Design the sequence.
C-alpha cells in the first residue's frame, strides 16, 4: 500500500480529544500547572506505568481505574508528584478525581489522575479542584501545545509531535505530548506522555501498539539511570477519522499506522533526551550481540556510566571509558576478542584491539559534534538494540542540587 | 583473649617488606610514579582482581603469575593503566617484569605488575625499566608513605593505614596502602591496594582473610558506579613477627588478628570514598532486609542514584529521591508497607509512610553534616549490609571532564 508520513510543525487536532490547561498555583508558580483532557465516548485507551515499587499515589489510582473502566477524562498536574505520600497521598488523588466527577456527573473511576514534580510532599488537591470549572470551560481541540507546557517540570522545552499518515485513500492523525528531563531511565523512562490518534482501533489492539511503541521509544532512553515513581504513558484511539473501518493486525493499513504512531513515540522520546537535564550532546548507542538482553545490558551500562558521560561532555575521545563500561556490563559471557566499536563511522576497537591506524584527532572531531552514534558489535550478533542518552554536565549537578530551592 | 588495637599515625614497618618509589616520567610528571615492593622469601601472598571483562594487561599477567608462583616483587605504576591495549599491552607488561627479572636474577613469574591511570594508551615500559636500578638501590622498610604517594592518580591524598595488634603476650603489625578516587564501584572497588602483616599465616588462609576483608571493605564502596579495568588488592603475610607460631582458624589469636587486618582494609576503603572525585560528603548506607543479596541491591541502587547524590551535595533533605531509588532497586519482591528509613537517627519514613511528625528543618540540619548515615530497614530483616559512598558535585564533572587534558 502506498503511504506518506507528513510531519507537522504545529500540533494537529485529533477529533474526539479536547484539552485545557490552567494555573492552580501548585508550587506558587505563575504558569499553567494543571491539564484536563476529555476523551470522546467510545475512545479506546491503554496505559503503561512505572515499575518503581514506590510508585506514586496517582499511578496506583490510575492503574486501578483503567483496569475496570475506559477513561472519559485525564487530569495531569505538575509541581507535585504526590509520591512517597502514603495513604494520605492516595486519598488526595481520589479527592482530585472525585472533585471532577462531582462537577461532570461521571464516575470517578472514569478519570485517570497523573502527577509529576517534587516527591514526598502533600498534594494540595483543593487548588486543583478549584480550577476545574475554568478548565471545563476552556476545553478545545487545539490546546495540545498549552498542555505540553503545563506538564513541564525541569523541562526547558515543551514536547509535542504530530504526524499525518496518508495510506491508500485514507488519512489518520496522531498527536502526542510528553514531559521528562531528569530521573529518566527504563522501565518506564521517567516521564508522562499522552498520545492520541483518530484511527478506529479496539482497546486490546491499542494496548498492543502501546506496548510495542513504548518498548522502542520511552523504554530506550536514559538520562541519569533514575527511574521515577510517576511514569505513565497513555495512548488513545478515538475512532473519529474519516475512515471508520476498524484497524486490526490483518487490515492493510495496520502496519503503516502502527509505524506512524511509533514515529510519534520515538520523536517524543528523543525530545526528552535532547532536553535531558544539563544535556549538551545527544548520543545514540547501538549494540549488536547474540541476544537482545545482552545488547540492552551493554547499551544501558555504557549509557549510565558517569565516566563515559563526562567524557562526552568534555568532547574527549577517552574511548577507554567506553571499553571499561562494556567490560563491566552484566552479561554472562563475553568474548572480548570479538568486541568492536565505532564513534559514528570511525572504528576505534576491532576484535578487542585498538585499531592500528587510530588517530585521536579524528575521534576528537567526532566527539565535538552535538549528535554522536556509539556503535558496539559483539561477535556478529543479530540482536540489535538502540538506546538514546545524553552527556553529564555541570548543569546536571546544578539543576539537581538546586531543584526544590 | 585480651587484646588491644593501636592505630598509628604514621605507617609502621612490616619486617619482610621493603619498598621504593621513583619518578619514571610516565606522563611527564615530576612526581614519583613507579613503586617496587620486595617480599621476603617465604612470604605468603594472595590477590584479588577486577571482574571487568576488559581487564588490563597487568591484571592478566599478575593473575597468571600468582596462580603458579608466590611473588618476590610487586611493581606498580601510575599514569598509564595499560588497559584496552590488546596483545601489545600484554607484551609491554611482560617486558616490565622481564626487565626486573633480568636485573634481579629471578623468574619473571615471581613478579606481579600493576598499573593505574589513563586507559587505552600504550605503556612506555622502557621508562619503567630505566628506574629499576634506582628502585633496587633505595628499597627500605620505611617507604610506605612514599609508595602510597607514587600510586596516586586523581587522588588528592595519599592513603595508608597501620595497626598494631596486641593479643595475649604477642603483637602483630599490619600496614596498607591504597589508591582510588574515581571509577570506584564493587566488584572490585576500583583501586589498587597492598596490605602486609608480619603474622605467620599460610597462603590458603591469607586467601581466606583477603576474601573476607575485601568483601567488607573494598567491595562495599561506590563513588560513581564505574568498575575499573585495573582493580587489584594484594595481602601478604611475612611471618616475621616475634611470634613465629602459625595462625590458623583454630589458633586463639586468629579472630583478633583477622579483625585487626579487616580494620586496615576498612580504613583504606573509607579513605578512598572520602577522597572520591569531587566528594564533599561521606555517606554510610546501611540496609537490613531478609537477604544479603537484597540488602546489597538496595544499598547499591541508592548509592548510585545521581539524584540522591546531588541532593546530598546540595544538603537538600529531598528524601523522596531515596524512596524512589529504593523502589527501583532490582529485588524480586518488596513490601513497601514494611519499608522504613532514617537519616542518622532521625526517622523519615515508617512502614512505607512519611512520619507524621517529620520536620524538614531537622532533616536539613542532618544533611548539612559532612558524614551522614542513611539507614534503610525492610521488614525486620536480619541481613545487614553497609556500603560507603559520597555525593556527586560539580567537581566530579570537572575532574572527569578535564582528566587527560
Sequence:
Amino acid at each position: 500500500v502506498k503511504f506518506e508520513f507528513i510531519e507537522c510543525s504545529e500540533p494537529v487536532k485529533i477529533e474526539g480529544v479536547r484539552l485545557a490547561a490552567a494555573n492552580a498555583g501548585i508550587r506558587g508558580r505563575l504558569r499553567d500547572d494543571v491539564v484536563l483532557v476529555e476523551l470522546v465516548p467510545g475512545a479506546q485507551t491503554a496505559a503503561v506505568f512505572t515499575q518503581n515499587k514506590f510508585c506514586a499515589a496517582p499511578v496506583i489510582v490510575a492503574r486501578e481505574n483503567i483496569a475496570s473502566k475506559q477513561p472519559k477524562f485525564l487530569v495531569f498536574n505538575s509541581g507535585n508528584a504526590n509520591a512517597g505520600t502514603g495513604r494520605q497521598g492516595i486519598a488526595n488523588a481520589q479527592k482530585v478525581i472525585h472533585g471532577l466527577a462531582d462537577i461532570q456527573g461521571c464516575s470517578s473511576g472514569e478519570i485517570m489522575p497523573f502527577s509529576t514534580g517534587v516527591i514526598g510532599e502533600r498534594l494540595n488537591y483543593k487548588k486543583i479542584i478549584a480550577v476545574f470549572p475554568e478548565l471545563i470551560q476552556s476545553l478545545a481541540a487545539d490546546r495540545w501545545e498549552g498542555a505540553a507546557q503545563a506538564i513541564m517540570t525541569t523541562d526547558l522545552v515543551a514536547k509535542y509531535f504530530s504526524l499525518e499518515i496518508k495510506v491508500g485513500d485514507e488519512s489518520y492523525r496522531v498527536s502526542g505530548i510528553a514531559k521528562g528531563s531528569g530521573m529518566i531511565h527504563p522501565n518506564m523512562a521517567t516521564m508522562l506522555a499522552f498520545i492520541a490518534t483518530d484511527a478506529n482501533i479496539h482497546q486490546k489492539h491499542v494496548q498492543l501498539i502501546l506496548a510495542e511503541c513504548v518498548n522502542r521509544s520511552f523504554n530506550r532512553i536514559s538520562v541519569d539511570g533514575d527511574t521515577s515513581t510517576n511514569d505513565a504513558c497513555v495512548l488513545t484511539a478515538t475512532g473519529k477519522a474519516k475512515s471508520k473501518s476498524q484497524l486490526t493486525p490483518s487490515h492493510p493499513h495496520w502496519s503503516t499506522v502502527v509505524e506512524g504512531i511509533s514515529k510519534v513515540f520515538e520523536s517524543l522520546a528523543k525530545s526528552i533526551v535532547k532536553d535531558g537535564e544539563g544535556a549538551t550532546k545527544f548520543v545514540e548507542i547501538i549494540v549488536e550481540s547474540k541476544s537482545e538482553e545482552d545488547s540492552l545490558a551493554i547499551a544501558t551500562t555504557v549509557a549510565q556510566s558517569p565516566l563515559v558521560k563526562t567524557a562526552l561532555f568534555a568532547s574527549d575521545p577517552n574511548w577507554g571509558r567506553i571499553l571499561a563500561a562494556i567490560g563491566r556490563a552484566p552479561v554472562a559471557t563475553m568474548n572480548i576478542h570479538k568486541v568492536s566499536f565505532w564513534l559514528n563511522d570511525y572504528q576505534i576497537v576491532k576484535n578487542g584491539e585498538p585499531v592500528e591506524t587510530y588517530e585521536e584527532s579524528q575521534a576528537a572531531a567526532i566527539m565535538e559534534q552535538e549528535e554522536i552514534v556509539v556503535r558496539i558489535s559483539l561477535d556478529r550478533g543479530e540482536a540489535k538494540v538502540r538506546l538514546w542518552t545524553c552527556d553529564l554536565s555541570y548543569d546536571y549537578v546544578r539543576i539537581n542540587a538546586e531543584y526544590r530551592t
